[in-house]
Amino acid sequence: MNIIRTLGELEQAEAPSSLALGAFDGLHRGHMAVIHAACAPGKEGQCWQPGVFTFRSSPSGNSSVLTGRDKERILEHTGIRVLYSLEFEDVRDWEAEAFVRKVLFEKCNARRLCCGEDFRFGKGAKGDVALLGALCREAGIELYVVPAVMDSGEKISSTRIRKAVEEGDIPLANRLLGRPFGFSLEVIHGNHIGGSLLGTPTINQAIPEGFVLPKFGVYASWCRVGGQYFYGVTNVGVKPTVGSDKVLSETWMPDFTGDLYGKRVRVFLLEFLRPERKFASLEELKAAIEKNGAEAKAVAARISPPSFPRGLRPGQAAHRGV
To answer: Tell me, what's the pLDDT at 244?
Structure first.
């Protein structure tokens, strides 16, 4: 997949493209319907280069439910061949019509555009689907507007997913995403209390700025290390008993031994077990961790290890032409 990150890299594309447009800050089931539409053949069977035009961070400023690294990985697995991943500030002052004509039509060589019903673009977000449709008809460009994907009578949105994660409702977040919620982050050094004093050695991962913060507390989890899965007990928060100056994901994998410092480990949260709390002693903390370990093992016994990415094969996305 070719990734273009700045306007300066935007040269005239040789291959005609089919572009999915949007912030795609969650790549949830609704977003994936737009992506799959861009990957599908055109009205008359044309096969254009599938691409995505998006931004590295959400224009809304809201936290993301996936890292930029995972966003690129998922898009590549869908069959996307060119990714325009720009900073929003690079295009925020472009007038709507100029952005479509000069950037999407000319630079990106778009022959089809795909977007959701609420897609907005241009300076002050003045451009809408009606304007985009008029510009596309004028230029002979196909436009597919993908209806909202619903779940339990409500539109699937990144806002719903963020709320579910922040409330610790991981099963709901996973259902709305269409894949397991998690993160792949570098293992950093902590205070080493888990291994040296508690007998429950943990891996520490710093939650990056701009990433959604799960409800502070303890979760059952699956962890992927070197292609193998290990069930885990993951605490997200500031470790009130021993203290931390930043938000950490701290995971104990009872069946794993080894040094993972400096390596990336993917952690999938499964279910919320208990809120984060301060214990009176390390002995009390150790007893709670061991109890949570047994609970996490029971959860992992009924929830199979996830694949990632999954459910990403382009399908028959519902859409309508404009």
So the answer is: 59
Helix or strand run (H / E) with residue 139: helix 129-139
Residue 316 has pLDDT above 90, yes or no: no
198, pLDDT greater than 60: no
pLDDT at 234: 95
Judging by beta carbons within 10 Å of its beta carbon (0-12, 13-18, 19+), is residue 106 exposed, middle or buried? Answer: middle
Residue type, 55: F
DSSP 243-309: --SS-EEEEE-TT--S--TTSEEEEEEEEEEEE----SSHHHHHHHHHHHHHHHHHHHHHSPPPPSS
Which amino acids are annotated catalytic? 250
Give the pLDDT of residue 239. Answer: 61
Taking the C-alpha atoms of residue 211 and residue 60, their distance in angstroms, rounded to an integer, is: 14
pLDDT for 206-252, tens place per residue? 999 889 999 999 999 999 998 899 999 999 998 654 455 678 999 99
CA distance 161 to 62: 12
Q: 235: Cβ–Cβ under 8 A, 6 or more apart, which residues?
A: 217, 218, 219, 248, 249, 250, 251, 276
Task: Find out whether 30 and 101 touch, Cβ atoms under 8 Å.
Answer: no
Q: Which long-range contacts does 277-286 make (Cβ < 8 Å, 24+ apart)?
A: 277/240, 278/240, 278/241, 279/241, 282/193, 282/197, 282/198, 282/241, 282/242, 285/198, 285/241, 285/242, 286/198, 286/199, 286/200
